[in-house]
Amino acid sequence: MEVSVLNINGQETGRKVTLNESIFGIEPNDHVLYLDVKQYLANQRQGTAKSKERSEMSGSTRKLGRQKGGGGARRGDINSPVLVGGARVFGPKPRDYGFKLNKKVKLLARKSALSYKAQDNAIIVVEDFDLATPKTKDFVNIVKSLNADNKKTLLLLPSVNKNVYLSARNLQRSEVMTASALNAYKVLNADVLVITEKSLEAIDGILNK
Questions:
Q1: Band of pLDDT at residue 13, cut at 50, 70 and 90
Q2: How many domains does the chain have?
Q3: Same domain for 51 and 25?
Q4: CA separation for the pair 142, 136 (Å, rounded)
Q5: Nearest 5°: CA angle at 55, between 53 and 57?
Q6: 43 and 100 in contact (C-beta within 8 Å)?
Q7: Are residues 187 and 150 in the same domain?
Q8: Domain that holds residue 103
Q9: 173 and 76 fall within a common domain
Q10: What CATH code is carried by the domain that includes residue 142?
Q11: Cα-based torsion angle of the residue sequence 22, 41, 181, 35 in order, rounded to the nearest 10 degrees
């Protein structure tokens, strides 16, 4: 699949690049995508929810009423979960929600996500560029020139570029990340994938190991 290379003004440069069929042209695996997205979202969870159980409550341990014959549930001290203000039974505890996925599964998930974008013609290749200073207005003009201003845009760079990152940081519908940090969730979450030429080379090197 050939894609025209554009400049940051949205004009064709006259060059074309061929998207690697083994990355952008495979049959997407939906189950693998589900597992990878599930892992990504699980890793975002803090897992810090905590409630006090009976042994952690402060309060008298005196038994408040007789064991039987009171007409209600049997309960002991004031910390009983039966009482209002008492402890919680089997409440949440701090935990790690993350789980392991094999490298080949994650690799296939990224290829599947990129193949979906290629099928939807939602990939734009631009020539490598830099911004002299961090300026949101300049980044907005680039996105508008690429006809992606009303869409969720993910820009992939070959390496960290502070000026470009800071220029896009305040934009709700735009995100900048390096090719090495690419993951299936970010690709699927974006409406348009903007890839620089060197980023395309980096993706080929990473996903064709």
A1: confident
A2: 2
A3: no
A4: 10
A5: 70
A6: no
A7: yes
A8: 2-45+98-208
A9: no
A10: 3.40.1370.10
A11: -20
Q: Based on the fold, state whether residues 104 and 90 are members of the same structural domain.
A: no
Q: How far is CA 92 from the centre of its chain?
A: 25
Torsion of CA 18, 37, 186, 205, to 10 degrees: -40
Whether 162 shows a pLDDT value over 90: the answer reads: yes
Last residue of a domain, one of 71, 96, 121: 96
Cβ 1 vs Cβ 24: under 8 Å: yes
Q: Which residues contact 88 (CB under 8 A, 6 or more apart)?
A: 51, 52, 53, 81
Domain check: are 141 and 175 in the same one?
A: yes
Q: Quote the pTM value.
A: 0.83
Helix axes 197-207, 103-119, angle to 10 degrees: 140
Confidence of residue 149 (pLDDT cuts 50, 70, 90): confident
Q: For residue range 73-117, what is the model confidence (pLDDT) as tens digits? A: 888 899 999 889 889 999 999 999 999 999 999 999 999 999 999
Q: In the structure encoding, which two tokens stand for residue 4, read together?
A: 């025209």
